[in-house]
Amino acid sequence: MQSGALLANDSQLGRSTTEMAISRLSLMEEMTARGIRITKQRRLLVGIIQDSPRHLDAFSLLKVAKLSDSNINLATVYRTLALLKGRGLIDELDLLHLEGEKHYYEAKTSSDHCHIACFNCGAILEYSNPLFERLKKKIASDSGFLIRVARLELGGVCSRCASAR
Ligand SMILES: [Zn+2]
Ligand SMILES: [Zn+2]
């Protein structure tokens, strides 16, 4: 019963804790398996999304990508995000609009996880728990829906901010 372990979060805005039992798809493997053309710029963007300890928005993604390829532009970033999202390889999140209307992207995980946002410092904690899977199954059977997407975002004050008060 340790799937929901909460780790100390980083106070840097948008930082997530990915060290817990949340395993992500290998985007490169999935793209290869699905015959998606892998250009140099796509490889770069996919690598950044895959390895990022944060949930990145399109502008942050562009900023990091430009460090390796100064020719990359926002249109390529958006096109690549749309491609990955369209193929179900990444999730798009709004993270309770902590930073306005931005959307954040992350490689899909093997099981859904919840996001807990701190309104004070902006830390984002990723949380997974088998109860969430059970709740989804219950909702599916009660509603008769075939559930394809499930999002649970909670907001509050993280333990670090709470103890600093
Ligand atoms: Zn906090
Ligand atoms: Zn996440």
Kindly summarize this structure in a few lines.
By secondary structure, this protein is an alpha+beta fold. It has 6 helices and 6 strands; from the N terminus they run H-H-E-H-H-E-E-E-E-H-E-H. A hairpin with a 5-residue loop joins strand 4 and strand 5.
Termini distance?
Answer: 31 Å
Number of strands: 6
Strand content: 5-15%
Q: How big is the Rg?
A: 17 Å
Largest sheet, spatial ordering of strands: 1-3-2
Tell the overall outline: globular
Q: Give the overall pLDDT as a whole number.
A: 85
- Give every kind of bound small molecule, once each: zinc ion
What is the structural class? Answer: alpha+beta
* Order of helical and strand elements: HHEHHEEEEHEH
Tally of separate helices? 6
- Helical proportion, percent range: 25-40%
Oligomer: single chain
Low-confidence stretches: 1-16
Sheet bearing the most strands, described?
3 strands, antiparallel
Description:
The protein has helices at 27-33, 40-51, 58-68, 74-86, 130-143, 159-164; strands at residues 56-57, 90-93, 104-107, 114-118, 124-127, 153-156. The chain is an alpha+beta fold. The strands form two sheets. It has a three-stranded antiparallel beta sheet with strand order 1-3-2. α3 (58-68) crosses α4 (74-86). It is globular and about 45 Å long. The two termini are 31 Å apart. Mean pLDDT is 85; it is low at 1-16. The structure holds zinc ion (ZN) (2 copies). Residues 118, 120-121, 123, 158, 160-161 line the site of one zinc ion.
What's the helix and strand layout?
Elements: H1 27-33, H2 40-51, E1 56-57, H3 58-68, H4 74-86, E2 90-93, E3 104-107, E4 114-118, E5 124-127, H5 130-143, E6 153-156, H6 159-164
Parallel strand pairs: 4-6
Antiparallel strand pairs: 1-3, 2-3, 4-5
Helix pairs in contact: 2-3, 3-4
Bound molecules: zinc ion (ZN) (2 copies).
